[in-house]
Amino acid sequence: MIFAVQVRGRHDRVETAAVPDGLLIRTGEQAALVRLEPAVGTQCWRLVVDGHATPVRLHERDGRLIATLGAVRVSMTVRRWLPLPSRERAAASADRRIEIRAPMPGLVIETRVAAGDPVRAGSPVVIVEAMKMQMEIPAPEAGRVEEVRVRAGEEVAGGQLLAIVRPLHARTERTSP
Amino acid sequence: MASIRRLLIANRGEIGVRIVRACRDLGVSPVAVYAPVDAGAPHVRMADAALSLPDDPPVESYLNATRLLALAHRAGADAIHPGYGFLAEQPAFAAACAAEGVRFVGPPAPVLAQCGDKAATRALVAAAGVPVLEGSGPVEDTDAHAQATVLGFPLLIKAVGGGGGKGIHLVRAAAELGGALRLARGEAQAAFGDPRVYLERWLERPRHVEVQILADAGGRVIALGERACSVQRRHQKLIEEAPAPGLSAGLREALGRAAVVVARALDYRNAGTVEFLLEGDRFFFMEVNARIQVEHPVTEALTGVDLVAAQIAVAAGEALPFEQEDVSASGAALECRISAEDPHAGFLPSLGTIDGVVEPAGAGIRVDSGLWSGQVVSRHYDPLLAKVIAWGPTRAVAIARMRRALAEFLVSGVDTTIPFHLWALEQPEFAAGRYDVRFTDRWGEGPSAPDAERLAVLAAAAWADHGLQTPALPLDGASPGWVAAAREEGLR
After folding, report:
1. Which residues in B304-437 belong to E strands, given as ranges?
2. What's A161's domain CATH number?
3. What angle, 0 to 180 degrees and rounded to 10, lies between the N-to-C axes of helices B177-192 and B141-151?
4. Residue A77's beta-bridge partner residues?
5. Hey, how many other C-beta atoms are within 10 angstroms of the C-beta on A77?
6. What are the φ and ψ backbone dihedral angles of B66, each rounded to 5 degrees?
7. Do A70 and A33 have their domain in common?
8. Contacts of B163 (CB under 8 A, 6+ apart)
């Protein structure tokens, strides 16, 4: 099978073929004999490449595949290879609302802004407490608060929408290559 | 243990397991308590009896003094070990235990009250002749600016009521003071039920060294050597080691003597830690942690003293069975804290369900762990999951063993601090023992390496090939689903 693996903006064309001892995987000019064996749980694996074993943790988050090898974290997207230009980027940049989301589940301690308030980049919007730590969730860009979706005392889930900010400056569109 | 036969453990996780083990060694019957989310936890399964608590939030579970005392009576326990955190340093709880004839495994209530008032303790210690970092007493919002101006910026805001990194905020300029005070008070109130804070001078690159002490009711105070705890983030420790690297013999002795002076000034009893900040050859008293600490196994590895067993013996009214001259330390040890945090995303808590664990073992390795498959990592509690302690005849051997152990340690289901530790042990400053409390800043969001990236791509391809996930086709507006499906068919 042929996959497109995207790492830090770079697309690799990766071709896999079943062989008696595992998979023969070709990336560019290189080929390797690879086995991926379950180690424990749903996320921990043993990756054996040309006879050398490395523990690797694989988990999915927000549509990406995250690999952790030793100290290194690699975030990837894996897709079947298609010789089609993607228009995703153009679609994504059209929406100029910034959604501020909870980085983790927790308790809303305080909301610092209300709809209509101006915010500066980095100024706190909501304060969330989890594991006895209070964290200020900042606005990533300057703008005007369009909506605050949570109230103090409310439990929020990880990734839950806290507030929406309309950026002050419309970003200039980059033209797709 | 004549006067303690059954002991209730008012804690959870790895320290719960640690206390069960000390009880077993002493022939004391351990009783566990558990919040609903901890029902399958190791400390529950290992105890003689386990009593349920009604709900997960700390106020309903491990922080509910009245309920825990009632459960101790129900279980027929004659002692309570609070572990660390939760009720460990609450004088009211220690006093309530004493009033009801249950032995509290920790310092008596008046000592806890004294140590809990960080500002008053600083004054007492300074009066005993031990150097103290300049700082204020408890500050009001109204006089904070004036006090801060006297001390100068940057400075630290610290909670009067507690330690453990909670409520500590660094203020670099006067403009940040108001906001940081609000956050610090909020955290202090939530963690310790006391919103009072004080200001302290900030040392730019200090090293954090602490001395373990044991004191019995007969007035014997013994120092068991120091631990270096400079690898921290958010003022919470990640790696601790002993002996502290680069400490001269003279300074080491001076710290031990100062710790004993502090303990005597406080009329201290049971196990405790005297924390110091070091800058060059000068040291400053910071605070006393009036509890067993997370990093106590580092000292145990060097000295062979079982600190938790000693705590229970002292609480039972026994004298410490050794003198200062009997304490000897050999080799080197370090501890890595394995927490449910994402080191690649600012050490944010990582919540979820753990569905598989492999813990390391082997020569020189000790693992204190509360991990279990099925464990739900809850936002209600501290993210510490387990600790790995490596001992070696030399520091280099201990580090090599730790590296091996961390590579064996597998946790499936949540992010952990293991990748950070693997990075830290590789750093030349760490290997050389030349690091300070700013060491963690260099981690950023973690290293990148082309070799690891190539392996990750291979793993991703194998993973997708095995059909562990059906790779999604790029869904751009131009290709409706059926067209894409047809193209996919064409590629087979």
Report:
1. 332-339, 341-342, 348-349, 352-353, 356-358, 365-369, 376-377, 384-392, 410-412
2. 2.40.50.100
3. 110
4. A6
5. 17
6. -60, -45
7. yes
8. B118, B287, B289
Backbone angles phi, psi at B400, to 5 degrees: -60, -40
Nearest to B263 by CA among B134, B119, B114, B136: B114
**Is A41–B354 a contact, with Cβ atoms under 8 angstroms apart?**
yes
Shared domain for B301 and B414, answered yes or no, is yes
The whole-angstrom separation of Cα B475 and Cα B317 is: 72
Per-residue pLDDT at B334 exceeds 90: yes
Give the one of B373, B458, B471 whose C-beta lies nearest to A32's C-beta: B458
**CA–CA separation, B399 vs A22, rounded Å?**
35
Dig out the tokens for B193 from the structure. 């039920």
Contacts of A73 in chain B (CB under 8 A): 344, 419, 446
Q: Is residue A76 part of a domain?
A: yes
Q: What is the pLDDT of residues B425-457, one digit of tens each?
A: 999 999 999 988 889 999 998 999 999 999 999
For chain B positions 448-467, those within 8 Å of chain A (CB to CB) are 448-449, 452-466
| Span B153-161, average pLDDT | 89
Sheet holding B365-369, edge to edge: B282-289, B270-279, B207-215, B221-233, B236-242, B332-339, B384-392, B365-369
Pick among B379, B423, B426 to test the A interface (most A CBs inside 10 A)? B379
Element (H, E) at B115: helix B109-116
Average pLDDT in chain B: 92
Residue pair B447/B462 in contact by the 8 Å Cβ criterion:
no
B423 contacts in chain A (CB < 8 Å): 70-71
Q: Which residues in chain A come in under a pLDDT of 50?
A: 89-94, 171-177
Q: Is residue B122 one of the residues assigned to a domain?
A: no
Nearest CA in chain A to B453: A74
Active site includes B291?
A: yes
Tokens representing residue A156 in the block = 């929020």
Q: Classify residue B123: in a domain, yes or no.
A: no
List C-alpha distances in Å: B37 to A131, B33, B279.
Answer: 15, 12, 44
Count of H helices and E strands in chain A?
Answer: 1, 16
Per the domain annotation, does A64 fall within a domain?
A: yes
**Is A176 among the domain residues?**
no
Q: What whole-number distance in Å separates Cα of residue B412 and Cα of residue B261?
A: 47
* Residue A20 belongs to domain spanning: 2-80
* Total domains, chain B: 4
Q: Are B64 and B93 in contact (CB under 8 A)?
A: no
**Contact residues on chain A for B379, CB-CB shorter than 8 A:** 104-106, 130-131
- CB–CB of B455 and A88 under 8 A? no
Rounded CA separation B68/B70 (Å) = 5
Dist. CA B350–CA B412, nearest whole Å: 12
Residue of A nearest to B176 (CA): A123
ipTM metric: 0.85
Chain B residues close to A127, C-beta within 8 Å:
183, 186
Half-sphere exposure (Cβ direction) of B211: Cα atoms closer than 13 Å:
30
Residue A20 and residue A70 in one domain: yes
Q: Which domain holds residue B169?
A: 134-201
> A44, B412: Cβ pair inside 8 Å?
yes
Residue B124 lies in a domain: no
Q: Are strands B49-52 and B29-34 parallel, antiparallel or unpaired?
A: parallel
pLDDT value, residue B489: 41
